[in-house]
């Protein structure tokens, strides 16, 4: 598992005259705990196999499959299937759209935290 070379870029939180961020504006697709775990794990690695993700996130085959499919349908992750010998291998990677969505989500969360501290 190679570390992902792309560092998450932090955008300015908000201008002083911009409206306060709203929790309801969060990306609901990423905000769900298991999907946030998948996207975060893939942001830290160039790719992960299904079994790597399952172990890392301590989840079941069915749970991981459902959440990974939602992220794939949204274009946030890519899925490639191959065989190693006779064994199927499913591998996931974060797409550019997924990385942008994660950056936006993290910036939004940071803005919410900052707004609550004021």
The end-to-end distance, rounded to whole angstroms, is 40 Å
In terms of quaternary structure, the protein is single chain
Q: Which structural class do you get from the secondary structure elements?
A: alpha+beta
Give the fraction of residues assigned to helices.
Answer: 40-55%
How many structural domains? 1
Say which CATH homologous superfamily is assigned.
Answer: Winged helix-like DNA-binding domain superfamily/Winged helix DNA-binding domain
Shape assignment? elongated
Name the CATH architecture.
Answer: Orthogonal Bundle
What order do the helices and strands follow? HHEHHEEH
Rg, rounded, reads 16 Å
The largest pleated sheet is described as: 3 strands, antiparallel
Strand residue percentage: 15-25%
Q: Note the total helix count.
A: 5
State the strand order across the main sheet.
Answer: 1-3-2
List how many beta strands DSSP finds: 3
Q: Whole-number average pLDDT?
A: 86
* Low-confidence regions: 11-16
CATH class: Mainly Alpha
Secondary-structure map:
Elements: H1 28-31, H2 33-44, E1 48-49, H3 50-57, H4 61-73, E2 77-84, E3 87-94, H5 96-117
Antiparallel strand pairs: 1-3, 2-3
